[in-house]
Each structure stands twice: as structure tokens, then as C-alpha cells.
Design goal:
about 0% strand; single chain; about 350 residues; mainly alpha
Amino acid sequence: MVWLWAGFIAFVLLLLTLDLTVFHRKAHVDSVKEALAWSAMWIALGLSFSAFVYFAYEGQWLGLGVTPDPVDGVVNNGWMAMQKYLTGYVVEESLSMDNIFVIAMMFGFFAVPPLYRHRVLFWGILGAVVMRGVMITVGARLVAEFHWVLYLFGAFLIVTAFRMLFLETGHKDPNQNALVRLARRWFPITARYHGEHFIVRAGTRASHESKQPDVAAQPDEVVDRARPGTVLLTPLALALVVIESTDLIFAVDSIPAILAITADPFLVFTSNVCAILGLRSLYFVLAGMIDKFRYLKVSLAVVLMMVGVKMLIPQWLKAAVGEHFNFYLLALILLILATGIIASLITDPYKGHHVREQ
């Protein structure tokens, strides 16, 4: 089992390394066409991994599919494991869309040049993988040891769904973020961007250069006042801090949602990671169409409410629906999301007009 986890993590790190050092070695702004191609590739990869899940659990490779799932007490065969993986993947992918809209607002607040957004998203997602791994490990252990925790998670998801539906979700000033305040307290922050650097040292070449033409000639009084060798954070670092903390908040919703479907650590972790790997390219596809998906939040709230109810009355639902319960759950989630997207496009108030990218 350890080798299986190590192999998956190594595979993910290899993909991220190739993405940063080969495909995006030179900073550039992704076009919508390029972003669509990358999104299609990441989604195809995530869906294709379900085939590996099927054969791995069907053949009980390296100890997979030999112990009961703490959620329903059933030993996952290949078909059941694949259904749970795909359901978790779709739930995480859909919840990530809401995260994308918040990220777009954060980029706008910090005025992050489009040229550097891919780099921030790359490191943000790498940090998200680590945080999700820790939260999933703790959550899966809690469910395995204390099954009643599922009822708390279910109630939490229903409350979250009602908040999304009925409460104003205005976004707070990122400067009030606790991590940002802490960073400003302990580190001096440069007044402008310094290329792709998150950290610069006063008196070095990196602290005086910028690959962005429109700011290269602007002075940076913070750097000029600092003693040579002083470590300084750039605004790009602050944007990364906010994105990491934002993802942590969203993980509090998404992890209980996937734990309602399965508490098998391998299925939870792989479905989460495969979904968030495509978050970077998906951002460049959706960032310019934020206002178009006016009913997406409603769809996400309904999905969370449905998953929360499933956590509270799982035995009754399984008895009422039958053995193919997870398959019907996946189909219903896809239908709800599709309905929200189609309704948004049909009632788009900006139809026929150019939507300016945030």
C-alpha cells in the first residue's frame, strides 16, 4: 500500500514539474484556446484514472479493496470504487469552480499581472495538495474510529448550503486576512512586482529588475530603504498567501463532502488531487466568464445539501434506491450542475456583449 501511495504522489509531482519547467518554463498569458486544451487534458487524465481505480480494486492490488469502507461498511470492488472515485471527482471539480471565482477577485485586488498568474496558481495548488493530504488523513481516521462524525459533517454541509443560498457572500478585504497581516508584520513588502519572484533581497539584481515592461522603470522605495541583503516579500507572495488560505477554507467544505461518499483514503485523496490539478487551466477558461454563471452557486448549494442529507440518512436512502445508489448519486450531481450551467447561459444578461476579464 505504501508503494501505491508513493507511486501516485511521484506521478503527480512529475506532472507538476513538467508543467512548470517544460510547458510553462517561460512566463506567458494563456489564451482561452490554450487553457481549454489544457483543461481538456487534465479532465481526461482525471477521468482516465478511474480505469486504474477499477482494475486496482477489482484485482485488490497492493491491499486495495480488502477492507470495508467506513462510510457504508461495504468492501469496494472495482465497479463500486470507480463510482465513488468519479462522484468524489465531480463534487471536488464543481466546488473548485466557486474557488476559481474567488481567486479571480483576489488577483484583481492585488493587481497581479496576467503574465504571473500561472506561477501563483502552480504553487498554490502544490500547497493545496499537501493540505488536502493532511486533512483527508485526519478526516478518514475520524470517520473510521467515530462513525457518528458523519452526522456532524452532514449537518455542517446542510448549514453551508443554506449559507450559500440565503446569505450575502461578499468577500472580505484580503488585507484583513490573518496570514497577510502576519506577513506584513514580520516582513517588509516591496511596493511593486519584481518579475516572477515571491522573495527578493535588497541590493541584489533581482530586487532591481522586472520582466514586466510597464513597471520596470518605476522606483521601489521599500527596496531602496532596506539594508543590503534584507529579505523582502513581493505582492506576488501576498497573493499566494491569500490563495493558499482561501483553498484551506474551501477544503473545509469539500473534504466533508467527499467523506459522505467514501472514507477510503486512497479514493478520497486521488479524486481530490486529480480534480484540483486542472484548477490552473480551468481558471484561465472561466475567469473571463464569472458573471455568466449566475446560477452556479445555487447548483453547488443544492449539491452540498443533497450530500449532507445523504450523510444523515444513508441507510434509508440505500434501502429506498437500491444497490446502485452511488451511480444514481453521481448522475444526479451531474444533472444538477448541468441545469445550473444551462440556466445561467440561457438567462445570461451579457449575451451578445463582450465580458471583460477580471
